[in-house]
C-alpha cells in the first residue's frame, strides 16, 4: 500500500526545519490526537467521536475537517450506504507509536500510584509492553544519548 503524505496546513510552519514542530502544527491542538486515538479504537462516525470525547460539536466538525484536509483521516461511505464515516489514512495510522508513547508517559506520570486507568491490550488481551527506543546497535536511546543534527540549506 502506498504511503500517505500529509499535506501542509499552510506555508507558515512554526519551525520549518523541525519535524517535531511540524507535527505539532498538524496535530498539536487539544483535540486532534484524541480524535486520532478514538479512530484507532474504532470510532468512525461523527456521533461516536462526539460521544467518546465529549468535544463540542462545532469544534469536532473543525477537527474532523482539518484532519481530513491534512491527510490523516479520509471519508468514505459507511457499509450501510446511508452515511459517511471517517477512517485513518496510512499517515493517521503512523501516529500509533506517538499515541502509545503519550499513553505510556501518562501511565507513569499523570496518575497517582494505584490510581485506576485504562489499559491498552493486544489482540490476545495482554497489556502492550513499554516501548523503548534503541540505536542501530541495540543500546537504549534517551535525551542524554541523542542530539539533533541541523541540516544546512
UniProtKB/TrEMBL annotation:
Residues 18-114 form the HTH hxlR-type domain. PROSITE patterns: HTH_HXLR. Keywords: DNA-binding, Transcription, Transcription regulation. The keyword Plastid does not apply. It holds the Pfam family HxlR. This is Helix-turn-helix domain-containing protein. It comes from Streptomyces macrosporus. The lineage of its organism: Bacteria, Bacillati, Actinomycetota, Actinomycetes, Kitasatosporales.
Amino acid at each position: 500500500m502506498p504511503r500517505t503524505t500529509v499535506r501542509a496546513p499552510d506555508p507558515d510552519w512554526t519551525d520549518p526545519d523541525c519535524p517535531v514542530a511540524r507535527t505539532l502544527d498538524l496535530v498539536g491542538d487539544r483535540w486532534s490526537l484524541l480524535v486520532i486515538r478514538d479512530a484507532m479504537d474504532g470510532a468512525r462516525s461523527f456521533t461516536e467521536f462526539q460521544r467518546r470525547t465529549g468535544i463540542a460539536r462545532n469544534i469536532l466538525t473543525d477537527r474532523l475537517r482539518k484532519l481530513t484536509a491534512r491527510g490523516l483521516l479520509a471519508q468514505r461511505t459507511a457499509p450501510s450506504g446511508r452515511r459517511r464515516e471517517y477512517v485513518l489514512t496510512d499517515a493517521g495510522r503512523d501516529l500509533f507509536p506517538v499515541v502509545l508513547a503519550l499513553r505510556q508517559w501518562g501511565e507513569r506520570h499523570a496518575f497517582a500510584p494505584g490510581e485506576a486507568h485504562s489499559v491498552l491490550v493486544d489482540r490476545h488481551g495482554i497489556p502492550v509492553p513499554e516501548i523503548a527506543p534503541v540505536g542501530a546497535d541495540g543500546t537504549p536511546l534517551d535525551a542524554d544519548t541523542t542530539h539533533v543534527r541541523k541540516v544546512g540549506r
